[in-house]
């Protein structure tokens, strides 16, 4: 099985580095996307603090059930006041994943553009007692660093695809990005994950893509795999201060399919609990979900906030909302295999539980076509 490349992104993080150095990193990222669908990064500021902060943050799951439910969203506390942020357990039989998670968003969320989106701009909720010494500092530091690094990597990928930084900036400048702590408890004997493919190894989370620009994933324990464009699986290694980058469905839509989302899954290796941390770079709630080349001013364009409403309520949007449809993919707001309301609360994830769909061809032949907008 091929290994994922490790890319030094230092030239993206410093104004002192040359245009040629940044362009070289853009090309490495583009080549990794085309061949592997994902890659690992190093060389960014405070990269040597990742394991420290992620391990401290993961102490959240050492809290008792009462403490976790006190910060629960309605996925775990149906009559609770919180809808979007906070704790949720996905530990019932028949789910697409067997895990529990804790979500936080921006320290000061940007106001929702419509009343119906207000739930997605709710303030963070924090445990009444700190799970570990320095826990809140670790959470805040991790969030801010991943937001900066994730944005730089996302812009690099879009430049490789032929877009200017300004093309994406206006859609992400008031972003609603999410930091998610994840814990995969050991599965009970005989447990099965919905969406497991015939002949596939035991799973802790089924094949899916994320509704983000990019996702930055850290893992304490192995199990994460990324699907390459050729349909083969790449094992994401556990390395010191390791962050893997997976492209999201939002970026695929905005680049018109030139940067394709990365399907990934988590294997159940049968070795006990698993901890990971995900950071999802998300656009603003009012950002248009349509290809940049089509313009972002259409009054009928679907927005990211409207997509979250659709996922949360599991009901059709008014006919005035239109959505990007790739010729070889289902619409963004309805993912193959998830049409029932039981998964409506999984609105941070764009799940593809059906057999892997035929990947759409690139709109061009590679980096050489980037200047004509065809890669």
* Structural class determined from secondary elements: alpha+beta
Query: What is the 3D form?
Result: globular
Mean pLDDT: 82
* Order of helical and strand elements: EHEHHEEHHEEEEEEHEEHE
Number of strands: 13
Please outline the major beta sheet. Answer: 8 strands, mixed
Distance between the termini: 26 Å
Helix content percent band = 10-25%
Radius of gyration of CA atoms, rounded to a whole number: 19 Å
Q: What portion of the residues fall into strands of 2 or more residues?
A: 15-25%
Per DSSP, the total helix count is 7
Low-confidence stretches: 296-300, 314-375
The neighbouring-strand order within the major sheet is: 1-2-10-7-12-5-4-3
Describe the structure.
- The protein has 7 helices and 13 strands.
- It starts with 5 loop residues before the first strand and ends in a 24-residue tail after the last strand.
- It has helices at residues 19-35, 50-57, 65-70, 135-160, 165-172, 249-254, 304-313, and strands spanning 6-8, 38-42, 86-90, 99-104, 178-184, 203-210, 214-219, 224-227, 233-235, 243-247, 264-267, 274-281, 349-351.
- Helix 2 packs across helix 4 (135-160).
- A hairpin with a 5-residue loop joins strand 8 (224-227) and strand 9 (233-235).
- Helix content is 22%, strand content 18%.
- The protein is an alpha+beta fold and 375 residues long.
- Mean pLDDT is 82; it is low at 296-300 and 314-375.
- The strands form 2 sheets. The chain has an 8-stranded mixed beta sheet. It has a 5-stranded antiparallel beta sheet with strand order 9-8-11-6-13, with no helix packed on it.
